[in-house]
Amino acid sequence: MNCKDSDKMIPLFLTDQLRNKDLYKFLNHVNKCEECMEELTIQYLVMIGSSILEEGKSFDLREALNLLLADANKRIKRWRVLYALSYVAEALTIAAVVIILMMVVL
Fold first, then answer.
1. Structure confidence at residue 42 as a pLDDT band (50, 70, 90)
2. Rounded to two decimals, what is the model's pTM?
3. Mean of pLDDT values over 42-63
């Protein structure tokens, strides 16, 4: 993923509209790219922070964004585990079918 792709995904990330695969790519890029993290912070402030500030409430921008990113990272970790388990289940199913076919043929 490049910065241009990441920039397009920021609004989707902030509104929780990224599919897991795209979220994974986005988080990997943003966590490594200072410019994109800065752009994410700016758009987060504009999109989310401004409405909170208009209500007269105060909040810690960095902490709120860090919590959002931490939740997204947890989601990706769960998705990757489930994705890996689906491959294991598929392999076990194929192995079971092969064993059954061998038993039938023999």
1. very high
2. 0.72
3. 79
Contacts of 3 (CB under 8 A, 6+ apart): 29, 33, 35, 36
* Residue 29 CA neighbour count, 13 Å, CB half: 21
86: containing domain? 3-105
How many domains in the chain? 1
The amino acid that residue 30 corresponds to is V
Token readout for 14 is: 């902030």
How many Å apart are CA 30 and CA 41, to the nearest integer? 11
Burial (0-12, 13-18, 19+ Cβ within 10 Å), 61: middle
- The pair of structure tokens assigned to 53 is 């500030």
